[in-house]
Amino acid sequence: MRAISIITLGLLAASALHGAEVFRYVDENGNVAYSDRPVGQNAESIVITTIAPVVPPRTTAAAQPNENPDESVQREAREPTPEERAEDRAVNCTIARERMERYAISRRLYRPLPDGEREYLSDAEIDEARAGAAADVEEWCD
Question: pTM, whole model, 2 decimals?
């Protein structure tokens, strides 16, 4: 349903743009102005042609100059510092606590489906989700 309405709106917008005209006129102060409606007798219709923008060709990773391979391996293999780990744990703890609170307050929980619909969880699934959220809090929060 959502896709149909998006397509319909897109077609309406495209048809509105297709029929658009631009008029050029000179106002009483001698300034050139443009409008979508003719203003006065001296307004002239302007044909505007649009062309597709020139897109530069994509460069592949092989075409780009490589950095030092040892450097990239070291960057990937680098262990996070204790400060970075503590920061990650604090962020994950906050997320886990907020999720646990939302699950505790909500009467009904749902799982989003690929088509945008919702599948509401059964009581057993809700209990399982709440237990999982509590386990996440215990895992991430000291």
Answer: 0.44
